[in-house]
Amino acid sequence: MKLHRRQALSLAPLLLAAAALPRTANAAGIFSEFGVAIRGADPVAFFTEGRPVEGNSSFPLTWSGAKWHFASAANRDRFEADPLLYAPQFGGWCAWAMTKSMLAPIDPTAWVIVDDKLYLNFNHRTLERFNRDPAGNIAKANAAWDAEYA
Question: pLDDT by residue (tens digit) across 79-124?
């Protein structure tokens, strides 16, 4: 794949962030920073409030090897009852980066729900790219995730 200079420069921040992360094939795990999944955002709130809400350490839950924080006990209980309904796709790693078979951290404010699934992205620019072709990008990211990390 040949990249034009502008495309390569626009990927630079994502590549630098990805390079700083430990990468083990088939062991990507859940994106967590400082021991908390998805930067402490409450995954249920994306669905119930339509926006990212900071979780509270008073309402923790450990799932899939990561600690999750929730804004309320009710949200924690909802997640615990059906975590696959609320957990972000690709372990909470950047969905657009996954289309390139890369792991990259996320910004919880750069999100979208497509077909009742939560997709997080590195920043608002990558979210815009992801949203240009959600179905195509989801298919690419699913294939990369399944091949590299599932």
Answer: 999 999 999 999 999 999 999 999 999 999 999 999 999 999 999 9
CA distance 133 to 17: 24
Which residue bears the tokens 């630098």? Answer: 16
DSSP label of 44: H
Q: Amino acid identity, residue 127?
A: L
Q: What distance in Å separates the CA atoms of residue 55 and residue 44, rounded to the nearest whole number? A: 10
Burial class of residue 73 in the structure, from the number of CB atoms within 10 Å of its CB (0-12 exposed, 13-18 middle, 19+ buried): exposed
- Of 39, 106, 95, the C-alpha closest to 66 is 39
Distance of CA 123 to the CA centre of its chain: 11
Residue type, 145: W
In this structure, the number of other CB atoms found within 10 A of the CB of residue 62 comes to 9
Contact (CB, 8 A) for 122 and 14: yes
The CA distance from 73 to 58, in Å, is 9
Is the pTM here over 0.90, yes or no? Answer: no
In Å, what is the CA distance from 33 to each residue of 39, 87, 146? 6, 16, 23
